[in-house]
Amino acid sequence: MVVTVIFVDLLGLALIVLGTTLAFRQNAVLGWWAIRRQRRDPRGRTAPPGDGSPAQYALRIAGVMLLAFGLAISLLFTLFYLAT
């Protein structure tokens, strides 16, 4: 296979993993963001949002969009390469 196909497939795989993490492992992502914000804010007044917060809806939407884009770009690029 050509190096560009492998590169695009790896990029698509990274987007799929990132999208899956954002969409379905929201507590982990919110925990990472809380830890990162605590490093910036020494007062420690950041708490992860609870269930039903707007942040979780935004994470779910962004995660599914990244997952779909990664799948589409990998699949279409590889299939086009194999068809030609």
Characteristics:
84 residues, 3 helices
Characterize the structure shown:
There is one protein chain. The chain has 84 residues and is mainly alpha-helical. It has one domain. 80% of the residues lie in helices and 0% in strands. It has helices at 3-24, 26-40, 54-83. The longest helix is centred in the C-terminal third of the chain and has 30 residues, at 54-83. The chain is elongated and about 60 Å long. The chain starts with a helix and ends with a helix.
Distance between the termini: 12 Å
Number of strands: 0
Instruction: Kindly give the count of domains.
Output: 1
- Following the backbone from N to C, one meets helices and strands in this order, namely HHH
Percent of residues in helices:
over 70%
Topology:
Blueprint: H1 3-24, H2 26-40, H3 54-83
Helix pairs in contact: 1-3
Condensed summary:
The protein is mainly α. It is built from three helices and no strands.
